[in-house]
Amino acid sequence: MLPKQENYQLARQMAVEGLGQSDLQERAAKSGGRYESGSEGEARIRLEYLGRELLISFPAGTIKATNGPRPIPLREEILVLHYLGKATGTAPTGRWISFAEIPGGAFYHPVFIQRCQSPLVRFFGSDPEGLKTVAERMPGGPLDFGDVGVKIQAFPFIPLALILWRGDTEFPAEGNLLFDDSITEYLPVEDIVILAETVVWKLIKSRR
């Protein structure tokens, strides 16, 4: 079995090769990005990701952030490449679903609870307003869900909803993450877990 870092490198390489064989203008359009032709056969796609503008260059597949810290972590680069490769251009429907309702989600649900939902409640359950405060630093806005609900715009066509219910003397705090039911038009279920985990931990680190 390959070490995790080598697995990531392989996944990244495969994603870059797949995109290199595709119509990059179509990939840009269907992902909500912007295509640019460069010199000497280079092509670029500009894409918004969690409030950062990324510049993805082909055929090399390099990814640079034009704002904020750079470079982005390897695992997030793979998310970006997978999003570009799978995007269908389907507009969000506005219908929110739980992770368990995503096709294939039931199998990954225990992992999703452990890596995404539980940390959200553990770090923000006693301070739901704190979630609202840190979420203001990301693209999105408030949602009228739970005691506190926020929308995070991860990619142009992928919004996430994070929701908290305050605890009391009888019941502990609860939380959940919801997804537009078009999300499988953009990411496979394994990547949806990684995206949700990434968003939750960026919010947690922003709170500290």
Could you explain the architecture of this structure?
With 208 residues, this protein is of the alpha+beta class. The chain folds into two domains: 83 residues, no CATH class; 112 residues, no CATH class. Helix content is 41%, strand content 25%. It is built from six helices and nine strands, in the order H-H-E-E-E-E-H-E-H-H-E-E-E-E-H. It has a five-stranded antiparallel sheet with strand order 5-9-8-7-6. Strands 1-2-3-4 form a four-stranded antiparallel sheet, covered by helices on one side. The longest helix is centred in the middle third of the chain and has 20 residues. The protein is elongated and about 65 Å long. The N and C termini lie far apart (36 Å). The model has no long low-confidence stretch (mean pLDDT 93).
Radius of gyration: 18 Å
Q: How does the helix and strand content classify structurally?
A: alpha+beta
Strand content: 25-35%
Order of helices and strands: HHEEEEHEHHEEEEH
Helix % is 40-55%
The beta-strand count equals 9
- What does the main sheet amount to? 5 strands, antiparallel
Uncertain spans: none
- Termini separation (Å)? 36 Å
Number of domains: 2
Morphology: elongated
Question: Which features would summarize this protein structure in a list?
Answer:
208 residues, alpha+beta, four-stranded antiparallel β-sheet, 2 domains, 6 helices, elongated, 41% helix
